[in-house]
Amino acid sequence: xxxxxxxxxxxxxxxxxxxxxxxxxxxxxxxxxxxxxxxxxxxxxxxxxxxxxxxxxxxxxxxxxxxxxxxxxxxxxxxxxxxxxxxxxxxxxxxxxxxxxxxxxxxxxxxxxxxxxxxxxxxxxxxxxxxxxxxxxxxxxxxxxxxxxxxxxxxxxxxxxxxxxxxxxxxxxxxxxxxxxxxxxxxxxxx
Length: 191
Fold this sequence. Notes:
By secondary structure, the chain is of the alpha+beta class. It has helices at about 5-10, 110-120, 135-140, 165-175; strands at about 20-25, 30-35, 40, 50, 60-65, 80, 85, 100, 125-130, 145-150, 180. A four-stranded antiparallel beta sheet has the order 3-4-7-8. The longest helix is centred in the N-terminal third of the chain and has 9 residues, at about 5-10. The radius of gyration is 17 Å and the shape is globular.
């Protein structure tokens, strides 16, 4: 059994058919196209990659780490898609469970249910924000309007120091009246 099967399908009880999101993109000719993509996927090392995307259903892209714009390089045209990796428990060292693209910012996880609410401009009286993409996804499949953060400190854009645009846009568009922050039990541990 893979870590994905154990953690997502067994422990969280996520039905396989819900592990997907519709993403807007372009085909190789630059024409608009939609593609259904899995949110959680298994890696070769049996870790779990979590797809992160925008409120407008587009992938967050960044340059390949080996790209060198000043010199011709095959990696110059290879865009990377932002994802968060949850390491298999056997590979966790020094308490580091998650890996994200270095220097590429942090992004909230918006479950498909909230994408649909945003697109319909549906009224959301209370929006929940929690530490953890898995928790946000699990809550959302049970009807909870919830956004996931990769860390308790990642609720704001690191450059502007303001709440992530995706969250503030969701709040404004859906007429959110209350925001409830759900923290892990260790939130009072001062480090």
